[in-house]
């Protein structure tokens, strides 16, 4: 019996996933919840075989939870189920030791087969997404430019970012200008949007 934990913030979709998997004689849903903050404590308590996680969750996003699960509950393999089919998200998922990456419009059979394969230690990646990731060029920003852009995405101004990173305000502005230029963006808000859509933030 493959024991599955599901974290998905859309109530109707989560309940549909649970109902779907309950039809499978060899899969048991041991927990389901809408918030990423519940993933680690519940996984530690229940020791599921597979955690099926959405990427965008309140409390803690699915990719952060997947990375932490790989250390805290190493026997629990993770599978991302997402509507965000971006190559950057796939690369981040692989870096977080995710075993499976499927889009939410996958067929029910594909989902249950993927859960069984992931439970056996196999890796399951949506083939179209894998091809897109191979075709996608490397992201152009330096680690520092990305870091500054991440803080800006949280609503921090140049002064706050400078204080957190022990940089001058001018240096922070230079990093933001450089990021805007490299991404061919109109301004920093546009740069944040481009980086988010590419899955780099």
Automatic annotation (TrEMBL):
Listed SMART domains: HTH_LUXR (SM00421), REC (SM00448)
4-aspartylphosphate PTM positions: 54
HTH luxR-type domain sequence ranges: 134-199
UniProt xrefs under Pfam families: GerE, Response_reg
A GO BP entry: phosphorelay signal transduction system
Keyword field: DNA-binding, Phosphoprotein
InterPro entries in UniProt: CheY-like_superfamily, Sig_transdc_resp-reg_C-effctor, Sig_transdc_resp-reg_receiver, Tscrpt_reg_LuxR_C, WalR-like
Chain ranges of the Response regulatory domain: 3-119
UniProt-recorded Gene Ontology molecular function terms: DNA binding
Name of the molecule in the record: Transcriptional regulatory protein DesR
Organism: Streptomyces malaysiensis
